[in-house]
Design a protein that fits this description.
The protein is of the alpha+beta class. Among the domains are: about 180 residues, no CATH class; about 100 residues, Immunoglobulin-like. It has 15 helices and 19 strands.
């Protein structure tokens, strides 16, 4: 079943967000240009792990709902994001954080030892993203590469210090089982992020992972976990006395921390993820929670009121909360088109949108507001990722991904199975009833030469006819092509490859004869 949004081509900006994700994914190993936030040590909400994970989630939503017929445009980017997710620079913070010492676990610091395994205990704020990303890849692309032994390996060694190599080998099955048993052992209250600190937010990606595991491997792990999770939290409730999502629970005392302020990121991040499996609850509380921190400006523009961070242990905490970005992403999930448009209107006016190498983003700006009081703060998580996520998502996008899986025959349907890096795909959807693959391509500006797109899964489809911009350009069937010289068509084992035209966007229709 295709989403209705798949019938509408991407806008230039939506394609630009995808291009920006792809550009970031292609940066050399440990080149984090444009991704560094204000915090240090990768232990805050602007860390590389969150940027990489939510780029992958945005790609998943765009593929599932907008470009279901273009796996070749997304798979290479997704794989590069996972490769970066496994780099030590992303997870080495855990060796420090694992020892405790914060205001929430200092009293138990003697219980914790330095732990170099980033998924071994706690740290659900990392392990659940690796788990869900690997399973998303398998589900989206019908590719089991991360199910192979050792496919998800975390390793680090330096000859300057540290002695022998730290190496921890997992795959999508073993990591999923490990996270599941941590959830069970917690009494289904959730796995900790930092020691002793269980955040509602960071356990939601694990639930997504369980659901994807069920879709790929079978079983009902997600149903078991969500049912037990609901029961475990019944005596606490999900909301504080002020009606906003509880931020965290201390494992040892089960003391709850309210979302004081309130902080937009707590409501928005938790709400957009929990909507996957608890939609009625999330939608019911959305209007009042939004009203607690939403700021309405001129001509329908919207911004947010961030809660002031109090000093902690004599220090002012500096990190990236990404309030504005999470609020926009939540509005997209809720289908609140007016509020989402208001956030985008504000961002366009006050957050300096920019194009770079064909990609669209909002560059980092550490200044909170301008002289007129308009919010200008842009954290990399917001500017690189979340505003793009919000633009590419659809109403109830995560809920639909979770609850409305692709039909079994989806991965056998004609599709764009390989797309060169210099091509933007603006539409790609196969109409099962009409037996037509519609796709639209645009070559990146300034790129010449043989830039190709491969159309595959045609072996059993019989005769086909290809139109470009309304004109018939070629006919063929397995192993034979008639015409198509202008597009340099060539046969491939399961279909054909064509050269992306230069100039404006080209719209294609590939139609198949009757069965």
């Amino acid at each position: 079943m295709n989403s209705p949004e798949a019938s509408t081509p991407l806008s230039d900006r939506q394609a630009g967000h995808l291009r920006h994700f792809a550009n970031l994914s292609r940066q050399p190993v440990n080149d984090w240009s444009g991704m560094q936030g204000r915090g240090t040590g990768q232990d805050d909400f602007g860390g590389y792990r969150f940027q990489l994970a939510y780029m992958a989630y945005a790609i998943a939503l765009a593929h599932r709902h907008r470009l279901p017929g273009a796996p070749g445009a997304f798979r290479p980017v997704f794989e590069r994001l996972i490769a970066k997710m496994l780099l030590p620079e992303v997870w080495m913070y855990w060796a420090r954080v694992s020892r405790g010492g914060s205001v929430f676990n200092m009293h138990r610091s003697h219980d914790y030892e330095e732990d170099w395994n980033p998924v071994g205990r706690d740290n659900i704020m990392y392990s659940a993203y690796v788990q869900s990303m690997a399973l998303l890849h398998h589900y989206l692309f019908d590719d089991d590469r991360y199910a192979q032994p050792g496919a998800l390996t975390f390793s680090y060694w330096s000859f300057f210090w540290g002695g022998k190599e730290r190496r921890f080998e997992y795959d999508q099955r073993s990591l999923n089982q490990h996270v599941y048993w941590q959830m069970v052992e917690s009494g289904y209250l959730g796995v900790a992020c930092e020691p002793n600190c269980v955040f509602q937010i960071c356990n939601q990606p694990a639930i997504l992972g369980f659901r994807l595991h069920d879709l790929v491997h079978g079983g009902a792990m997600a149903a078991e976990v969500t049912t037990a999770y609901q029961q475990a939290w019944e005596r606490f409730g999900r909301l504080g006395a002020n009606g906003h999502y509880l931020t965290m629970m201390a494992q040892d005392t089960q003391a709850l921390r309210d979302n004081a302020g309130p902080s937009p990121w707590v409501d928005a991040w938790c709400g957009m993820l929990m909507n996957m499996w608890n939609r009625d609850f999330v939608h019911a509380h959305y209007p009042a929670q939004l009203a607690g921190w939403l700021l309405r400006g001129e001509d329908g523009a919207c911004s947010v009121r961030s809660a002031e961070r109090p000093p902690v242990m004599g220090q002012q905490v500096v990190n990236d909360d990404s309030d504005f970005g999470f609020a926009a992403a939540w509005a997209s999930e809720m289908g609140d088109a007016a509020t989402l448009a208001g956030f985008m209107r504000h961002a366009d006016r006050h957050m300096a949108p920019a194009w770079r190498d064909g990609g669209f983003h909002f560059p980092r700006n550490d200044q909170l507001e301008d002289a007129q009081g308009h919010r200008t703060l842009v954290e990399p998580m917001t500017g690189n990722v979340l505003l793009g996520y919000a633009s590419l998502n659809v109403p109830d996008g995560l809920w639909r991904l979770y609850n409305q899986p692709w039909p079994e025959h989806h991965h056998r349907q004609p599709a764009l199975v390989r797309v060169d890096d210099a091509v933007d795909v603006l539409q790609a959807v196969f109409d099962t009833e009409a037996r037509v693959l519609r796709f639209a391509l645009r070559r990146c500006e300034g790129v010449g030469g043989g830039v190709e797109v491969e159309i595959g899964r045609l072996a059993s489809r019989g005769a086909w006819t290809l139109w470009c911009d309304g004109a018939e350009v070629a006919r063929g069937e397995a192993g034979r092509i008639d015409g198509g010289a202008a597009l340099a068509l060539r046969a491939t084992p399961e279909g054909f490859a064509l050269r992306c035209p230069e100039g404006a966007t080209a719209a294609f229709v590939l139609a198949f004869g009757a069965d």
